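Worked problem 6 (solution included).
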Amino acid sequence: MRTAGGHYVLSLAPGLLVWSVPSTFRWFSAGCMILHPSADPTGAADLLVELFDRQPWLRYQRECLEALMEPAEASPV
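Solution. The predicted structure is:
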């Protein structure tokens, strides 16, 4: 979603938003704002995966999303 200020916001899970502002990704973790350079999206993704793995409610969200991304089994009919 694009905000009125021209920033982008991505909702990864209930309560977890990632903002993309000029040159920085930012999100909150354990009450602290995390800042990561937007020139390193892979590094930001790695940090977010770690966050998902440490938080049981986020880990469950990740498992559900991964299950949705798996190819469907071929129908026997």
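Discussion: The chain has a mean pLDDT of 80.
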